[in-house]
Amino acid sequence: MFKKGVSLLIVVTLLITIFAVGYAQKTEEGKEIVWKLGHNALADHVDHKRLVKMAEIVLEKTGGKFKIEIYPANQLGDAIVMYEGVQMGSIDATSLSASAIAGYAAYPKLSVLEAPFIYDDVDHLKRVLKSDVVKDMIEELVDLRNTRIIGMFYAGTRHLTTKNTIVKTPEDAKGLKVRSPDIPIYMDAVRAMGASPTPMAFAELYSGLQQGVVDGQENPYMQIVSMKFYEVQKYLIKTGHITMVGAIIVNEDRYNELPDDYKTILIEACQEGIEYAEQIIFEEEGTLVEVLKGFGMEIIEPERGLFIKNAEFIKDKYKDQWGEGVYEIIRGL
Hints:
Layout: H1 2-29, E1 33-38, H2 46-61, E2 66-71, H3 79-88, E3 93-97, H4 98-104, H5 122-129, H6 132-145, E4 147-162, E5 177-180, H7 184-192, E6 196-199, H8 205-210, E7 216-219, H9 221-226, E8 235-251, H10 252-257, H11 260-294, E9 298-300, H12 304-310, H13 312-322, H14 326-332
Parallel strand pairs: 1-2, 1-3, 5-6, 5-7, 8-9
Antiparallel strand pairs: 3-8, 4-7, 4-8
């Protein structure tokens, strides 16, 4: 009986070893690797184009052995469902704003990257994204939530629009209901503009503006054009209150299963996709104000200094969550 038990144990052990070796060989050789990446942008949006470019490069450089399937427009669920899917491993990757990740991952330090008026320009942002302070955040998130950010990027600058009200100072925005994502720092940015933040799903925003549920909204030029908000909004106020930071984030276990050369290809492809999309964003930002003028919007240059002063309470409110001196380090870069 004992010998039979030992023999059975040996057989089982051999089968497990054979399976493990076979699986490792498949992974090492890059065979049959298919990832699912979900995100919330429409298929014609630059956010989708960024991810498609990355997937194309990965497929090409691995000889077709590593495929990333892209699912736009919330096909795999809304943003929080997709992040939780990545965390659990049911989805391999997604793309979200830094502040969304901060909320979904219960890691508020990351929201400092989208603090109102924190950057002087896009070059300043790029220096920050390459800094040790951001590298430390990425590693902390891996340890905390088993999710790894493989690339971060400029995702546009948010501006205010209104239907009936010209806003040049925070005083002008008093009493206005302005749609905001249900993200604390975004809502505080609206408060700093003098308005009342009103959370509303992005998909419901056009009808909310049309029906007067909200008086205004705030988004980058690209979203204002692609969602045709110019049809239900009269004024574009160039507040530039939040410089958006996007991130491509993957499940850490799935990432670690990749052979080293595939990891390198993935990271490099991610960066190439980011640079490709960045050129599109810069080109569009240079023309979209004129496009919006052509659609009948009036462009308002506000007194930004007053908005910046009004937003000073935010860094004091969040300094404990961001960590001592983190805001000042980023400003100093």
